[in-house]
Structures
1.
Amino acid sequence: MEIKLKTPIDDKSRQSLSAGQEVLISGIIYTGRDAAHKRLVDAIKDKKPLPFDIKDQIIYYVGPTPAKPGQIIGACGPTSSYRMDQYSPLLMEKGLKIMIGKGPRSDAFKEELIKHKAIYLLAIGGLGAKLSQTVKENTVIAYDDLGTEAIRKLRVEDFPAIVAIDSSGNAII
C-alpha cells in the first residue's frame, strides 16, 4: 500500500517511513545533479545565499530532457545517486531531509543520513516518460547555464518512489 505524502514533509511523517515502503509525493520538489550540487556546496562554504531554502526540502537527482511542444517537462528519470555522496553531508547539515535518485549510496552517506534523520528514496529508472506525467509545474530557479541540469522547482502530484534508506539506516539496497 502506497503512503501519500504532501510537501513539506514533517519530521514525524518522514521518520515514520520504513525501508521498502512505497510513497506518492505531492507538492514541491527541487532538482539537482552533480554540477548544481557542487555550486550549492560552494555557496555554503563561501557563506553565500542558496537559490532556495533547503531546510526540510526534497532534491530529486534528475536532468530532464527538453520538453516537447505542449509538455511541461521532458522525460525525467533519476540519475545515479552516488555522485552526490560527496556533497550530501553539508546539504543535510543545512537541513536537506529527502533525496530521490537511483542506485546504492556509500556507507559514509548512510551514516550522515542517520545523523540528520534524513531519508533516501528510489525513483524507478527507465520510467522517465511516466514520471514526467506527475509534474504539473516546472520552473528553472537557478544555474540556468547548466541547461537540463539547472535547479528546477517542480510541483508534482503522486510522484512514486520507494524508501531505500530510512532515517534509522534500514535499507533495501
2.
Amino acid sequence: MIVLRALWGSTHPGPTLVVTALSVALGFAAHLETWRLGLLVVAVFAGQVSIGLSNDAIDAARDAAVGRTDKPIAAGVVSPRMAMGVAIGAVVVAVALSAALAPGMLAAHALLLASGWAYNAGLKSTMFSIVPFLVSFGLFPSLATLSAPGGTPAPGWQSIAGAVLGAAVHLTNVLSDLDDDRATGVRGLPHRLGARASATCAALGVVAGAVAVLLGSSGGDLARVPIVAWVFFGATLVVAIATAVRVLVRPPDRTVFRLVMLAALLLAAQLVATAA
C-alpha cells in the first residue's frame, strides 16, 4: 500500500486528474458513445501517469540533491527503476487503447506522449522547453474529435487555445522551483525569461487564447457566441488582467501562480463550453 501511494504521488496527481477531467468534458462535447468515451478517458489517464512517473524517475537524483523529500522517488520510498517500469507499462496501455479507438487518435496521442517524454528526457533544460507543452496541449482537443467514428482533428481555434493553455502551465508551474532547478543545471525557457516575464507572458497568452476561442467558434459573428462562453471569457479576462497588474507591482509569488492557473482553468472551461 505504501508503494502504491508513493507511485501515485509521483504521477503529479493534481495535473493528471485535471487533464483527465478535461478529456471527459471534451469527450462529452464531441458526443462520443459511452464505450468510446471510457476508452478515451482511460487512455488519457494512463498517458498522464506515464509522463508524471517518468518525469520524477528521471529527475530522482536532481530532486534528492536539493532535498525534495516531498517527492517519493527522491525520498527513497520507491525506486526510480520501479517507477520507470510502471511508466512504460502505462504508456503501453495508453497507446493500445488509443489504437482501439481510431488510427488518427493513435497518431495524435502517440505524438502527445512522445512530446511529454521528450520534455522529461532533456528538453526541459533547454530554451525549447515550452515546445512539448505547445505540441501536447495543442493536440489535446483533437483526442476527443479523433476518437469518434470517421473523426477529424479539432478546429484550429481549439488547438490554439490548447497550446496557449499548455504554455501558461509551463511558464508558471516552474516558478516555485526556479532556484532548485538552477542549482541542478535545469535552464528551460522560464528560467531564461525570469519569473516576472514568464508570469506576464502566461497571463497575456491566456487572454490571446480566450480571444481565439471567442472568434474562432463564432466565425467572427459574436452574436452567435453562447452566453455561458461570454461568462467564461469575461472571467478569464478579469483574472488574467489582475495577474498582469500584480506582477507589475510586486515580485511573482504563489498567488501569481494560482491566479494564472485559475485563468487557465477558466480558459479550459470556455473551450469546453464553446465546443459543446
3.
Amino acid sequence: MVDLGSGEALGVSADGNVVVGYAYDSNNREFAFRWTPETGVQRLVSGSGQSVASGVSADGSSAVGWAMGLGVFLWTPDTGAVSLGLQTNPANAFNIGISADGSTIVGSIMEDGVHRAARWTRESGLEVFDTLGGWQNHAFACSADGSVVVGRIQDQSYWWQAFRWTRETGLVGLGTLGGNTSTAFSVSGDGSVVVGTSTATGLWAFRWTPTRGMENLNITYAGLLTGLSYLTSARAVSPDGRYIVGVGFNAETERQEAFLLDTGFPLRGDVNRDGCVDDADLMAVLFAFGERGYRNADIDWNGVIDDGDLLHVLFHFGDGCE
C-alpha cells in the first residue's frame, strides 16, 4: 500500500498507476492532486483556493474536478487545468465524473437556483437534462464512451429516483424497490449494468439491468450473506459489470464495512454476454482486433483490442457452455 498523505483518493486509472483526489496543504486547504509512481503527488490547480479532482480517464491522461475560481475543470498534461465555464455547488465537486475514454464529463450545474444534471463533450459542449417536471437532478457517472449517464432525479414530492439516460430513450426512472427513494451511483462500461442504493423497508444496495430491472442485491445474493449481514449501498461496478463494491453491515463485527461482490457474470472472455465463451466471442475479438476504444471486446480494459483480449477468450474457451 502507498500512503498518499492526508486527504482522499476519488479516482484511479484502469491500470492503477494514476490516482486523483484531494489532499491538504500546509494551510489545511483542500487541493486537487494527481499521483503516479514516477511523479508522486502533483498539484493540478495553481493558487491557494480550494480544489478537488474527482475522476480520471481509464488511461490516466485526463482528470476532472472543481476549483474555486475555475468551476468545473478538465486537466491534461498538455493543457493543465482548463475551466469548462460550468459552475456547480462545491458540495457536488466530489460527484463530477469522466468517461473511460476521456470524451465525456458528467455532473450537475446550478441553473435558476436548482441543480440540473449535465453532460459535456469536447464535440458538442454542454447538454443539460430535463427534470421531467420535477425539482432537480444530478448525474454521477457514465459509460465508457459517455453515451449512457446515470444519477438521480427529484420529483414534486421531493423524493429521489435513480435514472438512466441515453440519446435514444432520454432520461428514464429506474424504480425504487417499492420504496420512496433510489440513487444510481455507477454504470458498467457498456451501460447495461447500473448500481446504487434504494430506500424501502431499509437501505438496500441494488443492481439494474435491461432484462431484470432493479433487483435487491440482498435477495439475489442472499446465499452469500451470513447471519443478519446486509448490503446498504452499491457505489461502483467494474467495467464488465461483474464486480460490485459498496458499503454494508457485517453482523459478525457489528459495524459498517466495505464489500466486494463477485456476481459471477459475465464470465471472463464472454464478449457477447450470453453466458458461454465460444466462437462468437472469438470472432468478436478478431473482427475488432487492433481497434481502440473501451468496449466489451477490450476484455483487459487497456483501451485497445489486442493479443491480451484474444488470449482471455482462448484460455476460457468453453466456459459456461453445455
4.
Amino acid sequence: MHRGNRTGLALGLVVALAVLGAAGGVTAASMDKVTLQLKWVAQAQFAGYYAAKDKGYYDAAGLDAAIKPGGPDIIPEQVVAGGGAQFGIDWLPSLLSAREQGTPLINIAQVFQYSGMREIAFKDSGIKTVSDLKGKKVAVWFGGNEFELLATLEKYHLNKDKDLTLVKQPFDMNLLLNRQVSAAAAMTYNEYHQVLEAGVKPDDLVIIDFNKEGTAMLEDGVFTTESWIADAHNKDIAARFLRASFQGWIYCRDHPSDCVDIVLKQDTTGVMTKVHQTSMMAEINKLIWGPPLPAHSIGYMDPAAFKRTAAIALEFGVIKKPASDSAYTHVIWEMTQKLK
C-alpha cells in the first residue's frame, strides 16, 4: 500500500466525520455504549484508541466509548467473553488458544502487522543463539505471552521443562538487570528501551528476534465474541468503532508527539515519562505502518500471516488442532471501507 492510499483513507475518514457533523451529529441518548479492554496499562501501545477518544472520533461515530486499561492479572479474552467489554486487544495466539478451549471469540481487525517481541540477554552471559539458552534461567511473560518463545525453543529442540528453567517474568526488567535470569522477554517499544534507559548499551546485548527465527506471531488485534457480532446492529457498531479507531491510529502516525501527550494524560500514577512514551510511539508506528509497508490499509488481516501464525501455534503446541479461518473475519473491516 502506497502512502497515497493511506492518505486517501485518512481523508475519507475526515469527510465521513464532517458528514456526520453536517447532519446534526448524534445526541447522547442515541449513542451506542461500547467498552474496549486493553491488553496492558495505558501507554503509547494503545495511543490510537486514546487518540480516537480524545479527538472525538468515537463521539462523531455515535459511540460512547470507554477504554479499560489492562494489568498483570487481566486477560482480555476472559473479560470480553464474560461481557465486561465488547472489544478486546490481545495477541492472535492467545485468541486461538482461547477458541480451542471453547471460548467463541473472533478477530475483527489485525492492527499490528509485525511482531515487536524479543528475548534479550547480556553478551557476557555467554548466550549467542537460542541454543545457548540450554541450562539457563529464562524469563518470559505468561498468560498467553509466552508462545513465541516456546515455539522458538521447540524449533531448537529445547525442552521447556528439562533443558532450561522458565521463570515467570514480572512486567519490568529487574530480573535481567539484576542478573537473576540469563535472558528475559522485551518488547521493542517498551522493555528494550527500559533496559537502555537503565544505562545498558545496545552493544552489550544479544537480541533474539522471533521474526528472524520464523516463529513470530501476530500481536495486537481487535476481537469480540461470535455471538455479539452475529447481530446486525452490533456489526454496524463494530464497523463504526474500527473506523474511528483507525482514524486515531492515522492521527498518531501523522502526529506522534500529540499522541504522546494524549497518552501522558492517562497517567494516574506519575510513572510515565515523555522520553519513554516518545520512543514507544515511534516503535508502535513501525509495527502498524512498517517498513516494510503492509499490502493493505490498517486493520486488514492478511490471510497468509494468519496461516503462518496458526501453523506455528499448531506445530509448537500452542493449539492442539489446526485453527480454522473462522477465527477471523474480514466482514467488519470491509464495512469500514464503505462507511460514508
